[in-house]
Model the fold of this input.
Amino acid sequence: MTTTPMTAIETEDRRQYRATRRRDFAVDLSMALATILAALAIGFLVMLATGNDPIRAYEAMLTGPLDRSFRVGRWLEDATTLTLLGLSVAIPFRARQISLGAESQVYAGALAAATVAIFLPLPPVFAVIVPMAAAAAAGAGMGLVPGSMKARLGANEIVATLMLNAIVVRVYDYLVNGPLKESGSSAVHSKNIQPDSALTPLTDWFGVPLGRANIGLGVMLLTAVALWLLLTRTPLGYRIRMTGANPDFAAYGGIRVPRVIEWSFVIGGAVAGLAGAHLVQGVYGRLEPGLAGSLAFEGIVVALLARNNPLVVVVAGLFYSYLRAGGDIMEQQTDVGTEIVVVIQAVIVLLVTAQALPNLLKRRIARKQVGIR
Amino acid sequence: MNEPWGKDGPAVAARGVTKTYANGVRAVRAVDLEVPPGEIRAVVGENGAGKSTLMKMFYGLEQPSAGEILVGGRPRVLRGPASAIALGVGMVHQNLMLVPSFTVAQNVVLGVEPGRRGLVDPKAAVETTARLAEESGLTVDPRARVDEVSVGMRQRTEILKALHRRARVLILDEPTAVLTPQETEDLFAAVRRLRDGGMTVLFISHKLREVREISDKVSVMRAGSLVGTVATADATERSLAAMMVGRDMSLDVDRTPARPTGTTLRVRGLGYETPIGQCLHGLDFDVAAGEIVGVAGIEGNGQSELAEILAGLRRPTGGTVHIDGTDTAGLDVAGHRRAGIGYVPEDRLHNGAALDASIADNLVVDRHDRPPLARHGVLHPGALRAHADRLIDQYAIRTPDPSVPVRALSGGNMQKVIVARELSAGPRLLIASQVTRGVDIGAMRFMYERLVAARDEGAAVLLISADLTELLALSDRLLVLKDGRLVARFDDTTGLTEKRVGLYMLGVEEHDRDRLTAHLDDPWEEAP
Done:
């Protein structure tokens, strides 16, 4: 209602306003921690109810990933892919486009990176960069298809991206089982990439075994910063934010909304393509069936948790991967299965996406202050 | 049905009523209000003064946080509109709430249908409606479908609906906003007749002139509190306005005669075909630099379409539009803006602002990709902030910080953000659509001064408004739109009355084509 008076904020002076903002931030932060604790508590009760030892299980889950250096490596390697995929959907989400196309984009990226890295002989540094660029381009292309369909033809982007996923995943399976399968091998996978194309493992840098973690981690961090700068420091980012905030307003202001929508899909697709390159050049060293697992959709969760802020996506991705890694260790060391991790993740997602708790708390604080005055 | 009313005492009353919303905003503070039966009581106040909230509490849409509501002399707990209606309280909202595909009679009896065994007796419905209309003097056609009748008749239908439910207290929330002067007079006559029959009427309005005409007493609210209640006979518009804003304030704008120079906007044969909304037919008019041209008309007669075509948001299907000689055909919105068009849209919540974005971001939507804000593809937050600080200062936008989301601003303040953006672009043509809708009197005066200042600096201003008082106060020339056609053109607005313009708005009178196109170079030839 326009008639609802909302003049309270105008009467505050700047200092008070900043104090309110700091308070809101503190509330947000402490609520995020409280949410995690609540989720862990629920997991605790579930384990008790199913007759397991929750303390031992949590010990394995929460300290496990940091126990040995190679476990740290597994966590970081997983987080790199997951965060890139989270970033890839965060950009269309900011333009209010519900893109579920990370899956098709990551597989297209993996195919492009592998094809170049296996078959195209290149000088050392180029051998790393060119496949990555090819992957980003392939991912961007996979983004452009549903993006244009939405922007120019008015197709529903959810349907378009899901259908494209179905097609690309089948094509990928066919290629890995057929033309690209390593001849003479009984297992289904492609030939290995040329050694020069591999992303340098972090083990080489730190001198401790860090598993398959590689400098893709650095690429991921740079990408997050670049996307943050894109959103906050460039005209295109402004256009993406305004299109997401109110597309009618953007159009009224002279912004070409269809073009912005296309760009948001293309940029997101390129980032998902990089995730594919990371899987091929950094993690597996070849194409394998289903190499992205469920990461494409967990990326959506990560983006939602981070409210589509690229820098927060990094934190959310690291945290979410930590839970995944911890769950695996818990399964190995105790009788508790990884299902409990799924329960914890689900509770966190429910609480955070509902956003009910922080808003309730802020309102209560605001009411109390009015009462005091 | 109705719980018994007390023998005497006020028809409705509030005792120490306070309403605090969940977000901590206190909309109504310790209000004591008593309205005796058979009185027309006007409740006036600026936007956000709390008058709508108070009325919602009488109608059960909101519950007081403290204090009590009395209906029929007794304290009541109104859990919802249903309990208010059962007690005889009816409310006619600003946005009429009728079923468009039903007839007038069906809407009137909706919920309390005559008939037996679950069947509705359509004949009885029509008869009941006709009888109520006769008694109250609210003329309606009971058999007409609601989506085919005028806004005035829809409103009368709403009132009849309340009468059918035996309302003894009628709350009218800004009833005249959608009416022509003639329809307003008819409404007032009917309301007086209802009052003489014992009805208590609460009349919410911005328009002090109408309040003086219709009410017995006036209660003034400011910032959630009741400032006072005065007998209408003892009040002047000026004294009421002073009570509303807490200081002396008038809406009279000092306006020197316009000194128009060359033609800025040249519209010839403008046509627009659309399956939904209003079509436009062969519009010919000019707006010169340095003049304000008003566009009057009952809402929905093509004003929105005209404004959006001129702003580049819709494409015309015929005719030409030139801005200072630039043909705007084929230009996109950004192209229109480059040609020098500024546009204050009629619905600021729909496309005038991005509510969740900051004030600073809202101020730059048309210039975010140019120096000084952006250089070499990089947007400078410092420049953005400086730009926002400057406009906040120049346009007196009340806010603690440019990073405040626009959603947190009041109507008038939000409109200032939009006007600040459009005027600071230095437009050659400013299209101002419903520029003071839902803003308080202080902001209204501010808008008026800015529009006149823009005119004096050489902008052509096309002022579209549903408020005739505003149009006559500001316009140097006036055009009237009816059914998508220009039907009147007044090149001199001095001495022009609202009533006279109203005749053209209703289509009772019409200027001939020679007068409409007088002194236009090369008017469009009408298709044979």
